[in-house]
Amino acid sequence: MNCLYCGHSETKVIDTRTVEDGRAIRRRRDCVECNRRYTTLEKVEETPLLVRKKDGSLEIFDREKLSRGLLKACEKRPVAMEEIEALVFSIERDLRNQYSREVTAQQIGEMVMEKLRYVDEVAYVRFASVYRQFKDINRFLEELENLLPKQK
């Protein structure tokens, strides 16, 4: 790693820490030539995961969009922010493991619902009502009936 200030090729690593849930490494460096310090961040380059929407269009997977949807479903529920972050991390990891380049929005929605069911039932029903676009109360009741036997 060349020094940011003088361009010298020899630096010492003073401190190393993992950041971003272990997905990156932060290093504090010291140049042996000019003695200045600076920080570098090393990340794995990931190929973008593409999401095929219902209308056939493609967009890049956005973990923030997933996080916002889960936050909305869990609003005013006893679900810790750490649980939501862990859920987002788990879903993204599973998507990247199961699908190499492209995934459908439907596959993401089903995965979210499967995992959210065990985190908070009310949040699950909220998410399902938006995701499955319940048109009337009967469709809502059907989803609740599907949830109840799985509890027993």
UniProtKB/TrEMBL annotation:
Zinc finger residue ranges, unnamed: 3-34
Obligatory cofactor(s): Zn(2+)
Gene: nrdR
Record bears the keyword Repeat: no
Job description of the protein: Negatively regulates transcription of bacterial ribonucleotide reductase nrd genes and operons by binding to NrdR-boxes.
A GO BP annotation: negative regulation of DNA-templated transcription
Record-linked InterPro entries: ATP-cone_dom (IPR005144), NrdR-like_N (IPR055173), RNR_NrdR-like (IPR003796)
PANTHER family, per the entry: TRANSCRIPTIONAL REPRESSOR NRDR
Domain ATP-cone as annotated: residue spans: 49-139
Co-factor note (free text): Binds 1 zinc ion.
One term of GO molecular function: zinc ion binding
Pfam families: ATP-cone, Zn_ribbon_NrdR
Family: Belongs to the NrdR family.
Annotated protein name in UniProt: Transcriptional repressor NrdR
UniProt keyword annotations, A-Z: ATP-binding, DNA-binding, Metal-binding, Nucleotide-binding, Repressor, Transcription, Transcription regulation, Zinc, Zinc-finger
